[in-house]
Amino acid sequence: MSNLKNKVLIFNPRSANQKHRIPNSILQVGAAIYGIFDFAFVDGNLEENPWLKIQSYFNTGEYKYFCSTVMPGPQLRQAIPFTRKIKEEFPNTITIWGGYFASNQYKVSIEAPYVDYIVNGPGDVTFPQLLKTLESGHIEELANIKNLIYLDTNGNIIRTKKEALLDQDTLPQLPYTHLNSFYNLENYLSRTFLGEKTFSYHSSLGCPFTCSFCAVVPIYQGRWKAKSAQTVYNDVKYFKDNFNIDAIEFHDNNFFTSKKRVVEFSKLIKDDGITWWGEGRIDTINKYEDEDLKLMKAAGCKMIFLGAETGNDDILKQMNKGGTQTGQGIKDFAARLYPIGIIPEFSFVLGMPADTPEQVMAQIEWDINFIKEIKEINPDAEIIIYLYSPVATEGSELYEQIQKAGFSFPKVLDDWLDPTWENFDLRKNPLTPWLTPKMVDRIMNFETVLNGYYPTASDFRIKGVKKTLLRSISKIRYKSGVYKYPYEIKALHKIWKYRQPEIQGFYSE
Fold this sequence. Notes:
- 40% of the residues lie in helices and 15% in strands.
- The protein is built from 21 helices and 15 strands.
- The protein has helices at 24-33, 50-58, 76-89, 100-104, 106-110, 126-136, 176-180, 217-220, 229-243, 259-269, 282-285, 290-298, 313-318, 327-340, 357-377, 397-404, 419-425, 437-453, 465-480, 487-495, 501-504; strands at residues 7-12, 39-43, 63-69, 94-98, 117-119, 148-151, 157-159, 198-201, 204-206, 224-226, 247-250, 275-280, 301-309, 343-350, 382-387.
- The strands form three sheets. The chain has a seven-stranded mixed sheet with strand order 2-1-3-4-5-6-7, sandwiched between helices. Strands 8-11-12-13-14-15 form a six-stranded parallel sheet. A two-stranded antiparallel ribbon has the order 9-10.
- Helix 3 (76-89) links the parallel strand 3 (63-69) and strand 4 (94-98).
- Helix 9 (229-243) runs parallel beside helix 10 (259-269).
- The longest helix is centred in the C-terminal third of the chain and has 21 residues, at 357-377.
- It is globular, with a radius of gyration of 23 Å.
């Protein structure tokens, strides 16, 4: 199938300025066409000038396809201009986007004159089928390819049927060796809060819940498929044996869905001296037995990221959180994990829409007080605070609510390059009409004081005298509830380059 003029370039736009994770998304794309098409990887995180690298490949005349994963936020800074420039300098190139942004903002993406196709969700079957169809010239067969978005000859948006999630154990191995021929894999194994050599891994796809605020829902529609515990362990063992990793970040949307799989994996990895972190739901993991949680701890589980969202049961219903999560359940789980020693990393979303400004502010105050309760129950609990940024599922009540409130996304793809939208996707700039500056200041100032009185455990430079000083300066504000103008705390955070894990991850440098 491959020839000298149909090679594929798979691009991972820059997502961070410092330590970088292994690019699992483009590895998955590469695995789908490995041995069928010749392809090159370009990782924007590890290139000083990624455009020059991309341009050098296309200057050979051998590359026909430019494929980019596109997540919301920082990746847009390279994905949009580079895809546009590809079309300008190499107009015969076919451009293909994938990733959460492309799927969730598919209208504005596919209507851009420089984006030809969107892989809408997993591309294990879609991507090779698309390339083969384009190579054959039988364009009429595009409609038969699942998980695809494109414009027909009349300019109408075509969204093909969604494909059932595949058995993850049947998928081809990720082409780590091929990636290593472009970038030394050692560059992706970084020192973090978890360990000296931290490996990033995806062990499952999707999530069985349909929260109305979650970007995953429109793509996976409440479906979840996972690799078996043994398959996951085999991959981990490969990196342990060949690269001496000592920590793992599981970037699954919901790693802990299956208790049986987690328990089996914990038994397999128990004696390997590997520390790990994953994301789960409180009401799911709270059904685990104490023995299961103790096994996980003994097997290296150091921290679990948990979407608490809010302690207000009415707002949980508004979010369509699903399951059985309640404010009391969050408290109970925080208390349960404290003696076991696994750190719960609770994320809260403040600033949900309401009928009046007074109600919005009352909800914010409710959650500020609730967060302080959680810290009383479990001082080790990590607290991540986000401003509510709409990613509501079309058709949901929440989606209707934010539309009525006057919120809308950019209608032209290039407008997403505005820095305010990048901050929006980092959930630090809401751009929401119901959040006043006073509300945003209240949330952000509380976060500053909270991070002063309880510095994140994931920034291990803030310890000893630094931690004591930071806590003592923040104590009066935290205890009294006077959060306004916390300049003295901000000054120390700036001097010590305090890290916020929700933006910068666990990395120490």
